[in-house]
Amino acid sequence: MIKEMIKKYSVLICLVTSGILIVIATLAYPGGSLLDKNSIGFGWSKNFLSNLFATKAINGSENLGRIWALIGMAFHSVGYGVFFINMSKKISSRQWATIIKFIGATNIIFIFLIATPLHDVGVISIILTLFGLFIITVFILKSKLHLLKFCCIICLLTFYCFFALFGFGYLGLAVIMQKVYVISSMLLVLGLEYFTKYEDFIQIKSAEQKI
């Protein structure tokens, strides 16, 4: 019974645990940001989350929050990986389901790499996540899940806004938008995990076959 409950709510458990550990990491972060190297503590509107993964904080002090951030990222990567694997079982198209499953299995490793010296390689996970959510959004748009349609579009827009702001050098706004897209992505993942089922997408396959 307990094993079944853990399996059923594994994504929720992982993401909630990850969120709690990341918050603990921010509280233990000494200080320093891109805008002010002498700032005290972690500023949600001044620090990128990647600052939590460094051995030393930007102000030069030892980053005591790093261990909590690493463990939190491990839970985050497992949560997203399991989500995509579970979602692949609901998608009626075998080809797209295989791709989503691959993204899930790959992300278990690549998301965690963001918190390591292989950060630049780990960034690939953001692209994979965005691609996976885009595929799922296409299927959601063809379904009758109207609220999730809106949520999917909003979530994707937050990703695109972050990339645009970061790419054009608006780092002050990019720092804030990073938190927005992370939170919106986590909420969407939970919504898709627990409020969709295989039957929501089997009708799409049937409709396509008739056409």
Describe the structure.
The chain is an all-alpha fold and 211 residues long. 71% of the residues lie in helices and 0% in strands. It has 9 helices and no strands. It has helices at 2-8, 10-28, 66-88, 94-113, 119-122, 124-141, 146-167, 171-194, 199-210. The termini are far apart. The relative contact order is 0.11.
SSE order and pairing:
Layout: H1 2-8, H2 10-28, H3 66-88, H4 94-113, H5 119-122, H6 124-141, H7 146-167, H8 171-194, H9 199-210
Short recap of the structure:
Helix content is 71%, strand content 0%. It has 211 residues and is mainly α.
Descriptors:
0% strand, 211 residues, globular, mainly alpha
Radius of gyration: 18 Å
According to DSSP, the number of beta strands is 0
Provide the residue-averaged pLDDT. Answer: 92
What gross morphology would you assign?
Answer: globular
Q: Are there runs of 5+ residues with pLDDT below 50, and where?
A: 206-211
Order of helices and strands: HHHHHHHHH
Proportion of strand residues: under 5%
Structural class: mainly alpha
**Helicity level, as a percent range?**
over 70%
What separation lies between the terminal Cα atoms? 44 Å
Number of helical elements: 9
For the largest beta-sheet, the strand count, sense and barrel status come to:
none
